[in-house]
Amino acid sequence: MGVVESWSRAMGLLRKHAPADYADLPGPATEQILAAAEERMGITLPQDLRAWLLQNNLDLPEEDADDDAACCGFAGFPDEGSFFLGIRSIEKLYANRPLPDGIDEWIPFLSDQDGWSGKFLDARDGRIGNWFVGEVTTTGEYASLADYFDSVAEMLTNIAKASHPTCSVAEGRLVWS
Known about the structure:
6 helices; globular; two-stranded antiparallel ribbon
């Protein structure tokens, strides 16, 4: 399954089981937005990341963004401590990212609010890694962005079955304990 299909599967589950959270998510980025971001960043976004952002650009509306936060996003998805990044947050974190273990071609797509930890796409080979400032970086945690989104879909399936250890759904929203 490709990244668009994997993301669509996760979004279908979110829409079905946590419709209020799903309704909060914005629409897609445009090619123009992505091209401008690539120019400012001085990189070409990997195809999988680009395809995902063309499905959902998960930036908060500018009026809701916190200028003091390293990253802004929709709290509570995919988990209680981190959130998917939209292109503005990707740009901001990319510009200030630590360069762990000599990996200089990584692009963040998920972070905590402070930008201290998260997941990144290794632009060299498309694998997904995990960083935490001051800790050893893990690369190859997932083989691809599609594999990572498949894991998010599995998590949402477990939440829907009430078999997730720390999350349930109440009033159409994911609730983390």
